[in-house]
Structures are given as C-alpha cells and as structure tokens.
C-alpha cells in the first residue's frame, strides 16, 4: 500500500497544499571510463540524458551527482560546470548518479493548474450528459485519484497502481481539511494551507492507510 | 455497458477517423474544434503524466474515468493514437485498441495502396469492418433503456 503524494488545489486552480509521502527510489549510479557512451545535453537548466539508454539509465533522466558530489542545476556544488567535468578525460573513471528530477515548487504549481484545466476539458468532451471531470487517471506507474468537493476544491492522491480504490482516503483527507484548515481561525480560504495540526493528522492518516489491509489490492 | 465513440489521430494531430455509436451529448462545437480539443487533452495528459510521475514508466497513460464515462488510450510506436470512450463498467480495452490497429488499420489502410496514411480515412471497407468489430464486442451491448 503506497501513497506517493497528495495535492490540494483551490477552486481557481492554485496549488494550496502538497505533500510527498513515499518516494520510490529511482536513482542509478554507474562508473564510466573515457569516453562516455551517453549523450548528455542541457534542458531546462538541467543536465539530461538525450541518447544512449542503458543499465537502468533512461532517456530523460537527469544527472544528480558526480563522484559523490550533488549536482545543482547544471553545476556541481563547488561551482564547476557538470558538462565540463564530464568532458575532461583527466576526471575518469567517473561515477555519475542518474535519476528522475525532483519537481520544484514552481513546477508543482504549474502541474496543479494544468490538471485543473484537464479536469474541465474532460467533462466538456463527455459523450454523456452531466459528466464530472477526471476522477481516476491510470498509467502503468501510478494511479491518480481526484475528488472535487462541492465548493470546487480538488483533492488529489497519487498512489501505487496495484492498489484498490482510494475513495475512502480522499473522503478522510477532505474531513481533515475541513477540520484542521477551514476551522482554523488563522486560515483564510483559497490560501496555502499552513496548519500544523493538518500536517500531523494527514501524516497519521496516510500511515494508517498504508498499514490497513482494508483496501483490497486490484480493482 | 456501452461504447460511445472512437477517435484516431496521426502523430501530427490530424483526426484520421471518427465514429460514434451511442453518443448522448455533443460537445456543442464544430467537429473540427472538438478533434483539436481532444488531441490537445491527450497531448497535455501525456506531458502532465511524464512530469508528475514519481517513477519511470513503459506505456504511460492508459485510461481515465469520470463519473459517467471512461476514456481508453492506445498509442503505437509510430505515434498513431486510438481513443475510445466507453461506459464505466467496461474493463481494460487495451487489447481491443491493439486489434483495431494491428488487425484492422494495418490490414486495410497500411496495406491498401489506394489509402494515403496521413489523410482522413475514407475507405468504406475499413469503416464497415471496424463498425462490425465494435458492434460485436461484449462491451457494446448498450442498455439504453435503463439509463436514458
């Protein structure tokens, strides 16, 4: 039972809460000798694999570390350019760590508003009368569950695809949002949720959900 | 259980084929606009998924459901996209869409020298075969009486 992350989107499409619960390990470290068999290029201020998929390193993965040093954007922590370090023969053999890039806050905000519009278009293109928007989106890596409340707030859960339904968890998160965010006198509606009690209880709920066998696998 | 409609797009976003069976609501725009919106929706969902996914995936987007219908998606390596809307109690349609491609499209369009690959499909044989195949599916048995 794995819940990857939780998103809450307000009625205007703004991201007001985000939590990464479980982070599946997708990093690969490999030592290379000169010359490097992979083609790397800069994309969106990141060093990305452009060609040469091998040993669990996929096209689209970014360089996360070189010889144990972390990479920030296109530079190492000490300010050296990643591409220059990798191009220099003297640095070989070299150990490079690859993985899926972690989303930045800005990207998350963009993805949230993107889903907000996808939800609306999903209902517009419906072949049936009075359809809601996307409630469940399936891929082979995860399932995305979305529950829109009567007031237009969207609660989104990303979970393991082998899992049974998450409707119960979404209802529970809505309950927590009502109890610990909306009833908090310092919280103003449609603004980012920064409530300690909400954080604590959400964490507890997710952990409880992962332990229970209530949600039968496969649906 | 019912099947609503089918869209086939090429990799440039041209709608090659569209057919509807039991569609109860039109989108309220011209067909051309609707195709563009549908292609845009699929394109954006794919980009959305590739970014939000916590891990690597193989096939990517498979289907989504609302409270009324389910949209099934299948893309060939050449970028041809098959989109099928069905009722909610219909199981995975991946094999069906795969058959539409390998059994019907490849046989009747790709191997037909008279059909051009990046123009809307006009082959009558293709239309008849596809219609017969969809109508013969167990998922097709429309229960119009109970819902409408």
TrEMBL record, chain A:
Keyword Endoplasmic reticulum on entry: yes
Function, in words: Core component of the TRAPP complexes which has a function of guanine nucleotide exchange factor activity for Rab1 GTPase. Plays a role in vesicular transport from endoplasmic reticulum to Golgi and autophagy. May play a role in dendrite postsynaptic membrane trafficking.
Family matches, as SUPFAM superfamilies: SNARE-like
GO biological process: endoplasmic reticulum to Golgi vesicle-mediated transport
Alphabetical keyword list: Endoplasmic reticulum, ER-Golgi transport, Golgi apparatus, Transport
Keyword DNA damage: no
Source species, domain of life: Eukaryota
Oligomer status and interactors: Part of the multisubunit transport protein particle (TRAPP) complex.
Full protein name: Trafficking protein particle complex subunit
Localisation per UniProt entry: Endoplasmic reticulum; Golgi apparatus, cis-Golgi network; Golgi apparatus
From TrEMBL, chain B:
Subcellular location per the Swiss-Prot or TrEMBL entry: Endoplasmic reticulum; Golgi apparatus, cis-Golgi network
CDD domains: TRAPPC1_MUM2
Ranges annotated as spanning the membrane: none
UniProt cross-references to InterPro entries, sorted A to Z: Longin-like_dom_sf (IPR011012), TRAPPC (IPR007233)
Swiss-Prot/TrEMBL GO biological process terms: endoplasmic reticulum to Golgi vesicle-mediated transport
UniProt keyword Transport present: yes
Main location, first listed in the record: endoplasmic reticulum
One GO CC term on file: endoplasmic reticulum
Keywords carried by this UniProt record: Endoplasmic reticulum, ER-Golgi transport, Golgi apparatus, Transport
Family per record: Belongs to the TRAPP small subunits family. BET5 subfamily.
Subunit architecture: Part of the multisubunit transport protein particle (TRAPP) complex. The heterodimer TRAPPC6B-TRAPPC3 interacts with TRAPPC1 likely providing a core for TRAPP complex formation.
Name of the protein: Trafficking protein particle complex subunit
């Amino acid at each position: 039972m794995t819940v990857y992350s939780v998103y809450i989107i307000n009625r205007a499409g703004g991201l007001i809460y985000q939590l990464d619960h479980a982070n599946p390990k997708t990093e690969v470290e490999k030592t290379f000798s000169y010359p490097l068999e992979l083609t790397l290029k800069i994309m969106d201020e990141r060093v990305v694999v452009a060609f040469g998929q091998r040993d669990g390193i996929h096209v689209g993965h970014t360089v996360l570390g070189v010889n144990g040093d972390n990479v920030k954007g296109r530079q190492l922590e000490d300010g050296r350019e990643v591409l220059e370090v990798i191009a220099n023969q003297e640095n070989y053999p070299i150990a490079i760590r690859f993985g899926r890039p972690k989303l930045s806050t800005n990207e998350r905000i963009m993805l949230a508003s993107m889903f907000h519009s996808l939800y609306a278009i999903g209902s517009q293109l419906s072949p049936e009368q009075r359809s809601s928007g996307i409630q469940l989106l399936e891929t082979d890596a995860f399932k995305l569950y979305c529950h829109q409340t009567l007031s237009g707030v969207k609660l989104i859960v990303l979970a393991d695809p082998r899992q049974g339904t998450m409707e119960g968890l979404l209802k529970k998160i809505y309950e927590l949002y009502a109890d610990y965010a909306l009833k908090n006198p310092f919280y103003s509606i449609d603004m980012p949720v920064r409530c300690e009690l909400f954080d604590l209880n959400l964490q507890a709920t997710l952990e409880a959900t992962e332990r229970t066998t209530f949600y039968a696998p496969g649906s | 259980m019912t099947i609503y409609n089918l869209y086939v797009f090429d990799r440039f976003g041209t709608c090659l084929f569209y057919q509807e069976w039991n569609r109860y609501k039109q989108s309220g725009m011209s067909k051309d606009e609707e195709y563009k919106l549908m292609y845009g929706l699929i394109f954006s969902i794919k980009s959305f998924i590739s970014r939000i996914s916590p891990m690597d995936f193989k096939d990517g987007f498979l289907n989504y459901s609302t409270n009324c219908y389910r949209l099934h998606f299948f893309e060939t390596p050449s970028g041809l996209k098959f989109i099928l809307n069905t009722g909610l109690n219909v199981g995975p349609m991946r094999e069906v869409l795969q058959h539409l491609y390998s059994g019907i499209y490849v046989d009747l369009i790709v191997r037909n020298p008279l059909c051009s690959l990046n123009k809307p499909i006009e082959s009558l044989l293709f239309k008849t075969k596809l219609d017969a195949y969809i109508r013969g599916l167990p998922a097709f048995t429309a229960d119009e009486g109970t819902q409408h």
